[in-house]
Every structure is written in C-alpha cells, then in structure tokens.
Design a protein that fits this description.
With 144 residues, this protein is of the alpha/beta class. The protein has one domain. Helix content is 36%, strand content 28%. It has five helices and seven strands, in the order H-E-E-H-E-E-E-E-H-H-E-H. The strands form two sheets. A five-stranded mixed beta sheet has the order 1-2-5-6-7, sandwiched between helices. A two-stranded antiparallel ribbon has the order 3-4. Strand 1 and strand 2 form a beta hairpin. The structure holds zinc ion. Zinc ion (ZN) binds next to loops. The site of zinc ion has 8 residues, from loops.
Length: 144
C-alpha cells in the first residue's frame, strides 16, 4: 500500500483513496469505506481541514452510526517544497520508522526518475497529529 502511494506521489498529482473493509466495533457489521492514502497539498486543499482535525481516516458504520478512526498511514506531499511526510501514529519506534524508510528507499530505487526526484525530496515520518498540524499551518501561511 505504502509503496503504491510513493509512486502515485511522484507520478501523478491526484489524491488517492482506497476502499477498505471495516468491521464495526459496536455492532460487528462489516462494511466498506473510502479512506485517504495520499494527499497532494497543492491539489487537494479541501483535504487539509479533515487532515488537521484527524478526520481523514474517520469512518462511520451505516447500520448503527458508530464512528471509528482507522489506524492507517497517510502520505502527504508538500508541494512545491519537495517534502514528503508519512503520517503514521503507529510508527513510534525506531524499528517502525526504519521500516518505512526502507519501503521508501526500495520504491525510489525502482527507476531512474524516482531516484532523481528522491535526491531532491525530504522524507519525514510524523507520528503526532500536533506536529502535522504545525506543518500544515505553515504550508497554508506560505501558500495563500
Ligand atoms: Zn455498527
């Protein structure tokens, strides 16, 4: 999943979403929900707000209306700053961060164009929403 995001990030400029199967924690109903995998800030301004409020991975059970927040990583492309941020609340340990870095390296070594892009790109892993908020606010200030 993450690998696809990096490729999407570099090749196209569209937000990418995917459909995931969710099982409601309250009524156990299984349903499908659209979730965000990747956001390009220069294209998807309207997604900044849900991202800042932590609602980017919010899903709601159609049956009992129970709201859940999924534990998924989101790739955020700060353009034109050439910064790629992986927002992943679970990546708290050095090992988890290292594994994300490894994924990224594997993807960018996939072809020459991606390798060249990667040389000019800063890759950051963020685990705290507060830190992501600060970056998003700075971005909005700089590009309004
Ligand atoms: Zn439910």
């Amino acid at each position: 999943m993450l690998s696809n995001c990096f490729i999407t990030t570099q090749v196209t400029d569209l937000a990418s979403t995917s459909v995931v199967e969710v099982k409601c924690s309250k009524c156990k109903h299984a349903y499908e929900a659209d979730v965000i995998d990747h956001i390009d800030l220069s294209e998807d301004r309207d997604l900044i707000k849900p991202l800042k409020s932590g609602k980017a991975n919010r899903v709601q059970c159609p049956k009992c209306k129970k709201v859940m927040y999924l534990d998924r990583s989101i790739v955020v492309n700060f353009e034109p700053e050439n910064v790629i941020v992986v927002f992943d609340k679970k990546a708290r340990t050095t090992a988890a961060k290292e594994s994300l870095m490894e994924d990224y390296r594997n993807v960018v070594s996939f072809n020459e164009i991606l390798s060249e892009v990667a040389e000019e790109t800063e890759f950051t892993i963020i685990t705290k929403l507060d830190k992501l908020k600060v970056m998003l606010d700075d971005y909005l200030k700089a590009h309004n």
